[in-house]
Design a protein that fits this description.
about 120 residues, alpha+beta, Aspartate Aminotransferase, domain 1, four-stranded antiparallel beta sheet, 4 helices, about 40% helix, about 20% strand, globular
Length: about 120
């Protein structure tokens, strides 16, 4: 299980507004922790995504649940790169964000109902 410190939650004020729902839903999964994100910018610097695109990096501590998260991302045209171990970089189009967030919320609900029984 990955836990988030109070410092992580305070950092949400620095997350680009349009990517915040995705960052929050990913972090609501006990086995996922986001490490960085960008919601896209009209005049991006070399570390930012252009307008209409987004980026989020995350770690996953549960190999059995990881395929479900990957499935939601990949079916919504998200480019997913695996880095060291279970560290991932995900890049996608802003127009898909709402659908991705809704599907990840549904995944969380399904997990909660399974573990409640």
């Amino acid at each position: 299980m990955i836990t988030l410190s109070d410092d992580c939650f305070r950092m949400y004020g620095k997350v680009d507004k349009n990517i915040l729902p995705l960052v929050k839903v990913l972090n609501s999964l006990k086995y996922v922790r986001t490490m960085g994100s960008c919601g896209g910018h009209a005049n991006p610097n070399k570390c930012q995504q252009p307008k209409g695109q987004w980026f989020v990096s995350f770690a996953c501590s549960d190999d059995q649940k990881l395929p479900l998260v990957k499935y939601v991302l990949l079916k919504n045209d998200v480019g997913l790169t695996e880095n060291l171990g279970n560290w991932f970089a995900a890049r996608g189009k802003t127009k898909h964000l709402k659908k991705i967030v809704a599907e990840l919320k549904q995944l969380k609900k399904m997990e909660m109902s399974i573990w409640a029984n």
